[in-house]
Each structure stands twice: as structure tokens, then as C-alpha cells.
Design brief:
- Two copies of one chain form a homodimer.
- Chain A is α/β, with parallel strands linked by helices.
- Chain A is built from eight helices and 14 strands.
- Helices cover 31% and strands 23% of the residues of chain A.
- In chain A, strand 6, helix 2 and strand 7 form a beta-alpha-beta unit.
- In chain A, helix 1 packs across helix 8, helix 3 crosses helix 5 and helix 3 packs across helix 8.
- The longest helix of chain A has 18 residues.
- Chain A is globular, with a radius of gyration of 20 Å.
- At the A-B interface, strand 9, helix 4, strand 10, strand 11 and strand 13 of A face strand 9, helix 4, strand 10, strand 11 and strand 13 of B.
């Protein structure tokens, strides 16, 4: 079997360390895995499988002979570094928002549009986390019934803001329980026992950039330039799984029974939909797992050809690290890595 | 000024004690306020204004000469007791779900349908909490543009389950932070750092009863027998304010600017909608307050004549106790109490 040299850039972050964990757990066929990060972290150790890797500084010469680099860095660094790395012949699989809407860059959820990987020009973009988690169940429903419109309200975990987001929730929650004032640093406001309907910056149309990602990235991933999307994104005091209340309008009728049948057989989905047993997706159950759980499937009683459901998936894994690793796996299977 | 004798039934509960607090805070013109509860609580003291009241056992003779009884009890008790109390000539303002859909019982949000108070036959129903909080901003928008369809996703506080819900969230959160297992008693599952898309029982159509309350009670409050409502109700780890992501389709065009103008002048509403200052409604700000805060108002880019917004309001106050007190106040003003 062919083996690959892989680099993870931003290996000390929430997503980067999860990429390393995921590569090891899924036995990615790697002859070498490099953990790269900023100079200040060089020499530190990060876990990898049963062992550990020594972090090295991210320098362009590190990418020579590397087949794929999984980027878990901010937009600005990616914007500068990704083209340089791609120019060395190393494919960049980038988790930032820097390249997602670039027409020369495929934006891929492997369960939805793996064929788009074939036309990459050196950079492949990993979609936004809440978008990925919606797309996994939406794709099989679209293939059957034709997706026209999505109305979504998200319940997004603090892990979307990285390791500092996770510690802010736990520390601040303890403070609030102890009667101390909340001191927001990572988030705009208190997140402990609160909700913040504001993720990423506000655009001119009143939507946040996060909300417009579902609109723009959803169209690109599903290949539907006219898809209508109305999204409200809300940060909730949950650690690492995003949940979403989704209503879809379809071209053709889609009964709840048919939707369940489609989702029971869909890749990346766990159908978990038995109200009689109090079974529906919840963050505590989906965290640290690979699948997007779907439940609460019902006919939308307010409109024809409309279906409503609830889904949840781990933000760090399927929303970021796992999806990037799956892109590399899919390219390996296609023999284009 | 005319003064009234008032009784609060269930005075030791989360809603009942808030009713007493609200009556005192708002200087309800009462010549006497009785705090009634189960026999086991008789003789206990409950705060009322700067002083306190001695709780008495709920017995039918307590209601003689009382003008209005605010009921904060369960459906079964209300079903039995309310007709007996109404028969004494005391108006029952009932917070349970027992009477809401009874065609002989007005279901009233004073900002929306105060005139319905005129046709009561002894019992008046207080609507469901998440329904009230949606109706307050929806009424002025409906009056202007004609409401056709509501799509809502709720983010509901634990106070909806009473005092035990509040203590379960704080105790369980501490346990989880300390690495101890969560032990759900009040809620179906862990609520600390989790979301539960399940409030009240499941109906045959796959919606929960809570979700169908928005459908059924919304139609009755707004007097719109054909209003279409699709709701997803979710319990979130927040103490006492419900929040809601709402999208409406209207008969006529309703711009965000017009909606803001209408809501700035609407009773019971605080317009709080300035993204440039990170201003939008949040549970930490609306808790212990009387108003429903509305923000994130924007044109729904996915459909014509469609508007999206976010609102939040205190579940115990406007969602229950305050609305009941406002009903009594409104009846006093109308001179029908």
C-alpha cells in the first residue's frame, strides 16, 4: 500500500492536535507525520497515537517531499503560507476561511462532493464547521427530493473558538457558580449560562459572516447556485458539539419515513430518532465521535414539501479535523494524493 | 382608587413566589394578598415587598370575597380547583396548560389581545412561556404586515421546570466540572453543558406538545385560525430567560427598518438591535426584567416577504408570573375585576 508524508500545521491548537489524533486513530497510511507550529512551540511534544511527536517550527523547507499538509491556522497565515506550500508540490488541506470561496479551490465534505477533489490546484478548503454538520445529512435528502431552501438555527459549541474558548467556558462557569463576575475574553459577552447570537463579524445585510457561510459554502458544496439559505448562528454554553434545528423545502415530496430511510443509509450519518425512547441527538452523546447524528425528523406542518429535523456533531472532529483527514483519505483512495 | 383582594395559589413555587414579588413591585392596588399553597407549606413565610406573608393551606373558603386568584399550580390541580374557585365569584388567572385551549376560556397576552378578557366566564388562561415571549413582538408586526407563517427555534431556560430545574442546572454543572457523573432527575438527560430537544411529551405528528403550543396558542392569541407555525423547542443550560430565533412570512412587505420602528413603539418590547455595538438580546441581560428584548432583525434573504429576528425574555416573569399579574392589572383598568 502506498504511504504518504503528512504535515499538520498548527499542531498545538484544538483542531491541529485533533488532526494528529484522528490520523493515528484512523490508521492513515503515513510513512511520516510532521507536527508543525509557531517557533515558540518548537521542541514541545504532542501526542500521536501511543507515542508523541516533537513539534518543529513551520518553515517552507519542512514541506519538501510532503504529500499533504493539513492546515489548522488562522485566515491570515493561511493566505500567505498556503500558496507557498502548494508551490512545493505539497497539497494543502486548509481549515481556515481564507480559500473556501476561491473559485480555484474545491470546498469539500467527502460525503457530499468528493469528485471536486479532482480539480484542485494545490489547495483544498475544509468548510466551516456548522456548514459541514448541516451538509452531511442534507446531501442525501437533496439527492432524493431537490433542495430549494434551508432555514437553520444553530446551537454552536465554544470549541469553535479553539482551546481558549473551551477554557473560558469552564473557568467562567465556575466563577459564576461561585458568585464572581464573568470576565469575557474570548467571546464578546459572558458565555456561562448565556447565549450569544453573534459568531464572526456582522455583514451589511444584518447576517453574521458565520450565517452567510452556510449560505455561500452550502451552495458551493452542493453545487446549487440558487439554493436559498436563512441561518441564525448562536453560541451556546456547550463544549464541543454543534447542534442545528433545520427546516428544508424541497422540489419534490419527502416524507419523514423516506428521510429516515435515506439517512439510515447515508455515509457519515447516525440516525437517532426514537422519541418513544427519548432518543434524539444531543451534544453529550455526539462529542468525541465522528458521525453527525440526526433525529426529531418530522413533516413541517406549516408548509407543503417541507421537512424539519435536528442534528448534532462534534465541532472539532467532523466540523474540522476529521473532515480534513477524510479529504486526505479520499484523495489517497482516488490515487490523486 | 378601587382595591382588590388577591390570592396566589402555589405561592412557594418558582412562578408563585415571582407572582407575589411582581404584585408588590408593581404596586398592584391590593387591599389584601393571600399566599396559598399545599398543607405541608402552611405556616411558612414568603417574601412580599419589604415584608412577608404567612402561607395558608389552599382551601375553597379562602377564596370567598377574593377578586382574583393567580394560579401557579400543575394542570391536574388546576383542572379540579379552578372551576370551584370560579364558582365562588373569584376570577381565576391560571398559569397551567389545563384551560388554554378551552373555547370558553380567554388566552391572553395583555399586549396582544386584552379585549378577550371581556368574555371570560370565571377562568382566564396564561399562555405557555415560550409562546408569550414570541407573541409580544409578533403582534405589532402582524398588525402591520399580516402574519402567515412562523418558523421558530427556541433556546429555553431550565426555570421552565420550576425551582427543581434551576437547582438541577447549578448542582449538575458543578458536578460535571468536578468530573462527577451527571445525575438527571428533573430533565430527561444531562442539561449541564448539553442541549435537550425535548420539552413536554411527544405528539403523534413528531412535534412535542411544547412545540404545538406555539402553533395552537399562537393562533388563539392572535385570532388567526389559519396561522402556520413550525417550531423546534430545545432546553438549554441557561437559568431563567428563554430565547428564540424566529422567521416570519407576511402577507405584505415588512422591511427591517419598518419592523424596528414598530417594535421601538410596541408595548412590552425593548428594541435592542445594534450589531455595531455588539448589542442584541441575551439571557443574562433579560433575566429578572419585564420586557421581551428584540434584535438581530434582518430581511430573510431566502424568501420574499420574510423577516428574521432574535428575541429573549425572562421565563418566570413575562413567560409566567408577570403576564398573570398584567392580566389582573388590565382587568382592573377595564373595571371588569
Amino acid at each position: 500500500m502506498k504511504e504518504y508524508k503528512i504535515a499538520v500545521v498548527g499542531a498545538m491548537g484544538a483542531v491541529g492536535s485533533e488532526m494528529l489524533k484522528t490520523l493515528a486513530q484512523r490508521h492513515f497510511p503515513a510513512s511520516e507525520v510532521k507536527a508543525l507550529d509557531i517557533a515558540a512551540n518548537a521542541g514541545k511534544k504532542v501526542p500521536f497515537g501511543d507515542g508523541e511527536l516533537t513539534v518543529r517550527e513551520t518553515k517552507i523547507e519542512e514541506f519538501r517531499g510532503v504529500n499533504a499538509a493539513l492546515f489548522a491556522v488562522g485566515d491570515a497565515i493561511s493566505k500567505e503560507l498556503a500558496p507557498q506550500v502548494a508551490a512545493t508540490g505539497c497539497v494543502v488541506i486548509d481549515n481556515s476561511a481564507a480559500w473556501r470561496m476561491d473559485p480555484n479551490v474545491p470546498l469539500v465534505v467527502p460525503e457530499c462532493n468528493p469528485e471536486d477533489l479532482r480539480w484542485h490546484k494545490g489547495i483544498i478548503a475544509n468548510p466551516n464547521c456548522s456548514t459541514i454538520i448541516a451538509m452531511v445529512p442534507l446531501k442525501p435528502l437533496h439527492d432524493y427530493a431537490g433542495l430549494k431552501r434551508i432555514t437553520a438555527a444553530t446551537y454552536q459549541a465554544v470549541s469553535g473558538a479553539g482551546i481558549l474558548g473551551l477554557s473560558e467556558l469552564s473557568n467562567q462557569t465556575r466563577d459564576v457558580l461561585d458568585g464572581k463576575p464573568a470576565q469575557p475574553k474570548v467571546f464578546q459577552h459572558q458565555i456561562a449560562f448565556n447565549l450569544i447570537p453573534h459568531i464572526d463579524y456582522f455583514e451589511d445585510n444584518g447576517y453574521t459572516h458565520e450565517e452567510m457561510k452556510m449560505f455561500r459554502e452550502g451552495r458551493k458544496i452542493l453545487g446549487l447556485p440558487n439554493l436559498m439559505v436563512n441561518c441564525t448562528c448562536v453560541r451556546v454554553p456547550v463544549f464541543r458539539s454543534h447542534s442545528e434545528a433545520i427546516t428544508i423545502e424541497t422540489e419534490r415530496e419527502l416524507t419523514p419515513e423516506k428521510a429516515r430511510e435515506l439517512l439510515a443509509n447515508a455515509p457519515g450519518v447516525k440516525l437517532f430518532d426514537d422519541p418513544s425512547k427519548n432518543e434524539y441527538p444531543m451534544p453529550v452523546d455526539t462529542s468525541n465521535g465522528d458521525l453527525v447524528w440526526v433525529g426529531r425528523i418530522r413533516k413541517d406542518i406549516s408548509a407543503p414539501n417541507s421537512l424539519t429535523f435536528w442534528c448534532a456533531g462534534d465541532q472539532i472532529r467532523k466540523g474540522a479535523a476529521l473532515n480534513a483527514v477524510q479529504i486526505a483519505e479520499t484523495m489517497a483512495k482516488m490515487d490523486i494524493l
